[in-house]
Design brief:
Layout (H helix, E strand, L loop, with lengths): L2 H19 L15 E6 L9 E6 L3 H4 L14 E3 L3 E7 L5 H16 L15 E5 L11 E7 L12 E3 L1
Antiparallel strand pairs: 1-2, 1-5, 3-7, 4-6, 5-6
Length: 166
Amino acid sequence: MAVQEFYNHFCFLCRWLFQYIQGANLNFSRIAMTAPVLTSIVPGAGPLHSSAYFIRFYLPVKFQASPPLPLPELNLKPYVWDSHCIAVRKFSGFARDSNIVEEAEKLGISLSRSPWANSTSSASGYAYSIAQYSSPFRIIGRVNEVWVDINASELDGCKLSGVAAY
């Protein structure tokens, strides 16, 4: 998929999520936008072996127990995230094709030199995820992260909890 096609498709998916939080759900609830917006990359799962991706955002605590159901035409699926641990690399600026792969590679290099060198997990099916914390209107001081799942069941410091997302 070409960069412009990816961007157009990405923006289309964001519009569905935006409609959902603006009340396009079965009980017409407006949902406060949360951060981060998470884009998970699945290499080779798209057409002609291109990458596919999933876009999610966390539901506020108010909606965790009973998320509003989206209108059927939005074709959004709820996702309850099982407890897991992640390795994170923070980066600034806008998250674009030109820098997210580079940041994911830098995280991979850091992990290869750490005690977690052989602890990456493919259980989620994602190669990595990009967490974007800043509003699209913020130009300076943007905060992003690249995440990779790690198999940390035997590691100390990984507190597990479930989170609902769309």
